[in-house]
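Most newcomers find our protein records easier to grasp once they have seen one. There is nothing in a record beyond a sequence line and a structure line. Getting from the letters to the tokens is the skill we practise here. An example says more than a description, so a record of this kind follows:
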Amino acid sequence: MKFVGKKLSQTQWFVVLYLAGFLTLTLIAWLLKQGMKFL
């Protein structure tokens, strides 16, 4: 895992984390939206 981390630059890690966070927030928002329909 250490070798993989060295290959990726900090910028690439930032982009990956940003996209992962964005997708997570989108998924949570979608689940909340779906949940509101049943309430």
